[in-house]
């Protein structure tokens, strides 16, 4: 069951984001406010150009808002330095991309281990944690396989395991089923939904996939950089 105790994992208040395109100012987000509870399975939906990816970049500390505030687990992040943001991402946030973004020369095990190496965790902890998470996503029999030896669904499972291995407070997934066939996509959605329920992992998706929306606790609709109120 989803846990809702304590402060929200994500709290965004009145966020705007402007980009310059030549002499034109593009307003990608227009005063967006949003809270995400611990363990929530949340979808951000909307047409192309609505601001979905920009919003995920704000939540993931990959970009800073032009105005407004972003807090992750109660910590306001918009004033942090680049190094502080990188440290926060390593400790608190996991990312799943539609292109998988695995390192081709590394095995499944090594791809999942990589965030722990970056964080400087002890090697013994690596073995225990990587083994646990690969088993949880059903890949314990292909740990030595490189990405080109895995199916698309297996590669996405490696990407999910890599996002989970540091036990982040939050996982952001940008169109995670876009490059998968429908059957594989369903199995990946089932896996992420189970992890959300069993481990209390918070997921925020940017997606057009109706199958993900059907499983969501909540859907936030964006249009032209603003959240569309419920009808």
Automatic annotation (TrEMBL):
Task: Pinpoint the ABC transporter domain residues.
Answer: 10-231
Keyword annotations of the record: ATP-binding, Nucleotide-binding, Transport
Q: What are this entry's molecular-function GO terms?
A: ATP binding; ATP hydrolysis activity; transmembrane transporter activity
Asked if the Swiss-Prot or TrEMBL record annotates the protein with the keyword GTP-binding, the reply is: no
Gene3D superfamilies attached to this UniProt entry: P-loop containing nucleotide triphosphate hydrolases
Q: Does the keyword ATP-binding apply?
A: yes
Listed InterPro entries:
AAA+_ATPase, ABC_transporter-like_ATP-bd, ABC_transporter-like_CS, ABC_transpr_LolD-like, MacB-like_ATP-bd, P-loop_NTPase
Output a single Gene Ontology CC term carried by this record. Answer: membrane protein complex
Q: Which PANTHER family match?
A: ABC TRANSPORTER ABCH.1 (PTHR24220:SF86), IMPORT ATP-BINDING PROTEIN (PTHR24220)
The protein depicted here goes by the name: ABC transporter
Origin organism is Fraserbacteria sp. (strain RBG_16_55_9)
